[in-house]
Design a protein that fits this description.
heterodimer; A: 102 residues; elongated; B: 627 residues; two-stranded antiparallel ribbon; two-stranded antiparallel sheet
Chain lengths: 102, 627
């Protein structure tokens, strides 16, 4: 098999996922939160593709493609929400958008 | 032949549907005439069926199936009509007497502001009754059975603004529902054992003795409830709350005699369970005595006739129960004539007196209403069984049929003769109180004529026709000499050998019952006509009879009071103490629990994500440890 072993790919994927998760947890700007979310998803995609190659099974790659499609739609909705929030002159800060508090 | 039967069945249904569908777009009079026309068409259909059956050799009849109505496994019921001597006879009685009574209603109900509803119900009733007698299997018979119960309920409660009418309607419905339930149980047993509800099943091949007795008991329960026989009789006198033509049609001529038809129709089964059949005869004998006694003290003109109806149906049950089906059916026919006549005569009197029904106020009506008087007299003589009026021929043959049955036959015989005496007394008590003599001040004050006549022609004509029928209707059969009706019914319901008396037995039974009837008339004349004897003062007996032997009070104490007490207890101690507070309690508990959980919803996105991530981490660690 050419190139580095699957473990390396998985390590990179976990690294990406961790960076994304930290971003979602720490940042308050919804734009950055969405961006971090994309990084998490791509970490997941990388893991899927790595496993797919490891197992000689194309299904994982197909999954990765579906995840991309879903991610694209999700970004559309997310960015739309960000624009809508901005239009209503609300603060772009996820901590202050807390009207659903119980 | 079957065409006539279908026409007979369909016409009243079409009439009822037309009146209902046209509603207020037609005048009230038109609704009345649609209903009348539809019942006369039914009569034409019945005549068609009768004459084509007569021209058929053997008169065995025919079963016609329109389509398979329902099928379940090997149990199959078709929508089928049976045209045989028994059903044709009933079709003629129902549609013939029915047509006359509906015609009478045109005059009687004129001016009532709900005439359309009345005539729609009447047509529905005629249809239901024809369904009952024409149905080619027990299930269709039950359909008709239920529908006549419904239309009877609707018509008893026709004047629904009167609380007493509503009460009476409910009572009739509940008592009949009891009978319907026992019949349904009988059918369940039949279906379980024979997979069929056909009349032609060979019951003795498929049913054990116990099962046969249970089925016969169930059918007898239905018959007794519908025909107001003891112990299910208490609804009939109250049913007089309905309009008088309804009493004449449903509660005298047709529906209440359905029990007799049922016994005659299912006689092979009753013959397999002879004890139950004799039980029917016994209940008839008891009813004819009790109802005759109670009729002695009633003061409402319609209630006297109602008790007399119960008593006469007792005779029919006696006849059908001992196995003389043709005699029972014969009395059913003559009774339909003279009892409808008596009710409609009473209706003419009530109509002319502006709705008054108390016979103590009525003395001397005959002076002002001679036509009604003579017609009523014909009916009364037929009821008592004075020759040559129709009741003489039919009632005597029933009493004579009991003599060959051993000791209980003699008990039945004695009951029959005693009943004839009572019939004479109560019928002519009514007659002497209402018709002869000088008109009482009440009658003078309230009597009014209808355009110079005693009533509208639509009322007078049916009364006259029925008076003729009540006089000559019995001539088709005189048991010792000619047996037209018995031989006509023979293919459908052959009289049991034990219930065939010899000619001499017929003669002396006739002599005894006629004598008893005449003695009864004489007593009534001495006490109420000439007033030569005072009415016997027997306070206890009078009170007992006025309370109808305390049957209502007994049923109240046995059934109504316990269930009302139970319901009240359930309401007070269960509903109010337990059920009602439970709902709010449940709601409050849920609210409190929600109050605890709602603190978790901080509204901060990052806490949610934190919990998600830490949850995923915990699961991952657990997986790693467990592996």
């Amino acid at each position: 098999m050419l190139g580095p072993g699957s473990a390396w790919y998985l390590a990179v994927a976990a690294f990406l996922f961790g960076i994304g998760a930290l971003g979602v947890l720490i940042r308050r700007n919804p734009l950055i939160v969405l961006l971090s979310l994309e990084i998490m998803l791509n970490g997941g995609n990388l893991a899927l593709v790595a496993f797919s190659r490891h197992a000689h099974n194309g299904a994982g790659q197909i999954f990765a493609l579906s995840v991309m499609a879903v991610a694209a739609s999700e970004v559309c909705v997310g960015l739309g929400l960000v624009v809508a929030i901005h239009r209503r002159r609300l603060a772009l800060d996820v901590d202050r958008l807390s009207e659903l508090r119980g | 032949m079957t065409g006539g039967a279908w026409l007979c069945l369909a016409a009243p249904l079409v009439g009822a549907a037309a009146i209902t569908a046209l509603g207020t777009s037609i005048p009230r009079r038109a609704a009345a005439w649609i209903s009348t026309l539809s019942t006369f068409v039914a009569l034409a259909g019945a005549l068609w069926a009768f004459f084509s059956l007569r021209s058929q050799p053997g008169h065995r009849g025919e079963l016609t199936t329109a389509w398979t109505w329902l099928q379940s496994g090997n149990f199959k019921v078709g929508l089928e009509l049976l045209v045989d001597p028994l059903s044709t006879m009933m079709m003629l009685i129902v549609s013939g007497v029915g047509a006359l009574i509906v015609l009478y209603s045109v005059g009687y109900m004129d001016g009532d502001d709900q005439e359309r509803r009345y005539f729609a119900y009447m047509s529905l009733f005629v249809f239901s009754m024809l369904m009952l007698v024409e149905g080619g299997n027990l299930l269709l018979l039950l359909v008709g059975w239920g529908l006549v119960g419904l239309s009877s309920y609707l018509l008893i409660g026709f004047w629904h603004e009167r609380p007493s009418a509503v009460q009476a309607a409910k009572k009739a419905f509940v008592m009949n529902a009891f009978g319907d339930a026992t019949m349904a149980f009988a059918f369940f047993i039949l279906i379980a054992h024979t997979h069929s509800l056909s009349f032609a099943t060979d019951f003795h091949l498929h049913l054990s003795t116990t099962a046969t007795s249970l089925v016969a008991l169930g059918l007898l329960g239905g018959a007794a409830a519908k025909s107001a026989q003891i112990p299910l009789h208490t609804w009939l006198p109250d049913a007089m709350e309905g309009p008088t033509p309804v009493s004449a049609l449903i509660h005298a001529a047709t529906m209440v005699t359905a029990g007799v038809y049922l016994i005659a129709r299912t006689h092979p089964l009753f013959e397999q369970a002879r004890t139950v059949e004799l039980l029917a005869a016994g209940s008839g004998a008891l009813t004819l005595l009790v109802a005759g006694l109670v009729a002695l003290v009633q003061t409402d003109i319609k209630r006297v006739i109602a008790y007399s109806t119960m008593s006469q149906i007792g005779y029919m049950f006696l006849g059908a129960g001992v196995g003389a089906y043709a005699n029972g059916m014969f009395h059913l026919m003559t009774h339909a004539f003279f009892k409808a006549l008596l009710f409609m005569g009473a209706g003419l009197v009530i109509h002319a007196l502006g709705g008054e029904q108390d016979i103590r106020l009525m003395r001397g009506v005959g002076r002002l209403m001679p036509y009604t008087k003579w017609c009523f007299l014909a009916g009364a003589l037929a009821l008592v069984g004075v020759p040559p009026f129709s009741g003489f021929f039919s009632k005597d043959s029933i009493v004579a049929a009991t003599v060959n049955l051993g000791w209980y036959g003699w008990v039945f015989w004695a009951c029959g003769v005693a009943g004839a005496l009572l019939t004479g007394v109560y019928t002519f008590r009514l007659w002497f109180l209402v018709f002869p003599g000088e008109p009482s001040p009440f009658v003078r004050e309230h009597h009014h004529r209808h355009h110079g006549l005693e009533g509208p022609w639509t009322m007078l004509l049916p009364v006259g026709l029925l008076a003729v029928l009540a006089t000559i209707g019995g001539w088709i059969q005189w048991a010792p000499r000619w047996h037209y009706l018995t031989s006509w019914l023979e293919p459908a319901a052959r009289t049991l050998a034990a219930a065939e008396p010899t000619s001499s037995q017929e003669y002396w039974t006739s002599a005894a019952t006629v004598l008893a009837g005449l003695v009864g008339i004489a007593i009534a004349w001495w006490v109420y006509g000439r007033e030569a004897l005072p009415v016997p003062e027997a306070p206890f007996w009078r009170r007992t009879l006025e309370h109808k032997l305390w049957f209502d009070e007994l049923y109240d104490a046995l059934f109504y009071a316990p269930s009302a007490a139970l319901s009240n207890w359930l309401r007070r101690d269960i509903e109010e103490q337990v059920v009602l507070p439970t709902g709010p309690d449940l709601g409050e508990t849920a609210l409190e629990a929600g109050g605890v959980v709602r603190r978790l919803q901080t509204g901060l996105l990052r806490t949610y994500v934190f919990f998600l991530a830490s949850g995923a981490a915990v699961i991952a660690v657990v997986f790693l440890i467990v592996k």
